[in-house]
Amino acid sequence: MRTLTSTAYLLFTLAIACAAHAQERPAGRVVLLDRIVAVVSDQVITRRELDERMKSVVLQLQRQGTPLPSNDVLEKQVLERMIQSRLQLQFAKDTGLRIDDAALDSAISRIASTNKLSVQELRSLIEKDGISFTRYREDIREEIILVRLREREVENKIQIADSEIDNFLKTLQQQESSGEEFNLSHILIRVPEQASPEQLQDRRARAERALGQIKNGTDFRQIAASVSDAPDAVQGGLMGWREFVQLPTIFSDAVKGLKPGEVSGVLRSAAGFHILRVNDRRGHVNDAMVTQTRSRHILIKTSELVSENDARERIVKILDRIENKADFADVARLQSEDGSAAKGGDLGWLSPGDTVPEFEKAMDALKPGQVSAPVRSPFGWHLIQVLERRSQDMSQQQQRLRARQALREQKAEEAYLEWTRQLRDSIFVDIRLEEK
To answer: What is d(CA 119, CA 98) in angstroms, rounded to the nearest whole number?
Structure first.
């Protein structure tokens, strides 16, 4: 039996839950059609929407083997995740971030391809389980919007100075664990911006209670699903494998002395109070020889004035010109909206990690001289041409590259938590879960 990627599968479970909910009502019984459980700005979240999401989360936790919190506790957690998503989706809409049907079709094609299916086969599998393909498409659209929003509002604004890299590398030389990777789980008790002393005391007490329960034998995943304010709460707090050098300083200082299975104390950051569990740790092999690619590209940006579809149509027309023997560099000088246009799109020698993942994946699949199909990245639509490749000893350069990536990861994680906290605190939210 064919299976789907985790993202697609989670969306399947949500839709299955919706169908099951519709079939559970006995014939002839009078039932409350729906009620509001939260107001988020000028939007509402209904009891039915919460019930549907609850079913999918329970299935997910059961598949992971995570002991379930009480229904009331889990409901509050799931509702908070829904509120966070609504806030971000509304912010994206208000600031002009859209995913049009052309971009959505491309994403669904990639999901199908990843699972070795055609789009029609993917659709048939979905509809065979009684799931609306229209609903599935909208869930994928929202997921893409949230990823793009984080890129735009947080990750693309992060700057790393050379002096920061120098200081980072000096610090690493003194860290015995700097070459290791850690599989971590995480609990966050969020603290509001400009919190009062009473609020700080309350949040710290919640974190201490959670730590006490864990030390007394309660499953970490169950506590995370019950109390954590982190986005990964309903996954039992699982962060997965992280390089030691990519962890925020308060995390790296806390975990370097822990063995697998051990838990940190309560940690304080600008975002709130944290508890970490080391699930596993392993050494990291660092190969100094890397493959570098010299490439050039043409970029057509999307914006509030240029839709996904318009940008893609432009890049397709440009590709047609190049396939009909137009010179890539000449076209890049005239058409590309990147700073490299003056150099015919030439990006020079690129090492792994120098570009965003979508660009790098497409570039790595090309042979020298080959031109890519249109490629979507957070910056817009690209055409990429690989000019040549080489193996390079990057001992010193790689150290600096990894340091830059690690600093970016650190800052991105901290900045995202702070951005979501500010967004949550700035919008009117009225939770009515206790109302009957």
So the answer is: 22
DSSP letter for 351, please: -
418-421: Cβ within 8 A, 24+ apart: 418/270, 418/271, 419/153, 419/154, 420/84, 420/88, 420/231, 421/190, 421/191, 421/192, 421/193, 421/271, 421/272
Which residue is associated with the tokens 């370097």? 256
pTM (predicted TM-score): 0.57
**pLDDT number for residue 174:** 63
pLDDT score at 9: 40
Q: What are the structural domains, with CATH classification, of the chain?
A: 6-21+32-155 (1.10.4030.10), 177-286+410-429 (3.10.50.40), 289-393 (3.10.50.40)
Query: How does pLDDT run across 98-133, given as a tens digit for each residue?
Result: 888 888 888 888 888 878 888 899 899 888 866 788
* Paired strand residues for 349: 294
**Is the Cα dihedral 84, 428, 420, 186 positive or negative?**
negative
Return phi, psi of residue 104, to 5°.
-65, -45
